[in-house]
Specification:
Strand order of the largest sheet: 1-2
Distance between the termini: 115 Å
Number of helices: 26
Radius of gyration: 34 Å
Length: 572
Amino acid sequence: MAKMDDIVTPQELSKLIPMLPLMLYFLQDEDPKKSGIRVGRAAQQNLSRSQVLLEFLIESLLAGVSGDEIIMSTNSVKSIFYSFDPNIVAECVVLVLKEAEPPLLDSLSKKVLIDAAIEKGTESTKNFRKPLRKLNPTSFYVLGELASFIHAGPSKGVGKLCTVLSRIILLDPAEPKYHPIAASLLEALSRNSSALFGVPRRQKLEHIKPFGYRQQALTHFHQAAALRRTQHLKMFYRIRDSMYVPAAEQLFKYHGFVDIAEGIYKKYSMLPEEWKHELISLKRANVELPWFNPDKIKFLNESTTSFPTIAEHQGSNFVDSKRPKEDMVIDELVDSEMSYYITLRTFLTSYVYEIRNIAEGRLGVDAQSNLGLSKKDVNYIFGERLEDIVSLLKKMVVKMEVLMLVREPTVDPIGRAGILANILLEMYPEMKAVYGPYMSSYSKVRVTIEQAEAAQEKASKGKSNSIYGKNASFMGLWQEVSSAKAVLKSSQNGLQSLLITPVARLPRYNLFLSRVAKQLGEGHPAHKLLMQAVEVLKSVTSSVDEDIKTLNLKVKQETCVKNIRLCAQECV
């Protein structure tokens, strides 16, 4: 057999010892009847591919080592191991057990276990509980998984497998006299694995549920890998698109690394530099990454100065009639939310701020007098309520990035629908606080604009409406801006069509949520959340409707009083 230190050293192999339970877990779940561990000539045939797998693990996983622990997610493990024949993975297990330095069990641990077997025999589990407690946590948990794996294997091969593996992990080559004792010891550990190590006897795979040490390890691997990659993504966002920094944690909570990397690349045409070698290693391990070409992709670091254009709206890239209908409805909602945000943001920055400058006299007295709206009117129509809407929408699209960037199924049973419902439930108090005042004031805003338009049309006959002329009006400015900005062209016919969009938005949320709930059915884990969100948003709409009725009544009363006063003046 070729020496493994041609590629990785024994010290590097020891770093992979915590990975052994995941390898064994994969082997048994993949095919428990064919996942036997072999050594000798048959195994040598797989050495070259075993080297590829080990090299990948060393290159990509040790890049994220914390102390002596390997950091990676269980989804990444699956994507790696499923690219190899189970025999390849089994051979890697043997190589790590056989050649890692320091080994799984140090000399003292081996002596304690062997002495216990010699003195008290292997018939009772009580004989080994005390010696096993003396092992370090990693050795205990890896040995427990190995014993459980052996126990669940084909009964005919257990004795032979225990003989082979006991020589590797329990004995030094210079102590052949203990071979039979070591084999019987490993067989006893495997036979009583559940009682000794707290891991299940995995006879029936459909009943397997991770718990105990395995559960802790898988949780640790997943959380540690997500934490490392989350920090990389946060740094990427800080440099490239800072508003999305808060979205990084949610992305790794609900999606796998490969899906997130693909989404980032499609949106930004670049990737965090820290992900480069990890993705290269995944590609070399035959993980499907058709979009990834390291020679053509731009990688971002702190010294990057040029950036490709951001694809803010990606909806057209995801039109697929084969997608589940509920996902298509969710796509429609999040894409419309992004369009809604971009439109109002552009309106605020390109038009509203300019109108305010004119109304406050910053562009001269002539421009202020010809605007057609008083400073009070401008503040009422385009004031803080509109800015609050845009600020709210910014938070919404950041939270919805977990649904926009990656449109694949999530790791959480509630799925994309449940995530959407949770976002709206979380944002409900702020939505009520922001949409309520805006919708309540809209009737008066509409009347004010109509009156100003009529007065301005009458006064502006024969005058230039150019934004650059001294006679520029609020309608002339609107025509200039809406014709120049693509996202505002749909509202070019009037401000009313744009200002009413927030009023119509809340009912649209309910419509979308109801459609998704109908597609999923009552048995889906997210159905209850969706219906809860529907009821909550209905309460917001009802509350706002009452405010609108009260305001309309007040406006009518003020109009009546004004008309009476005018009539009284005319009579006098």
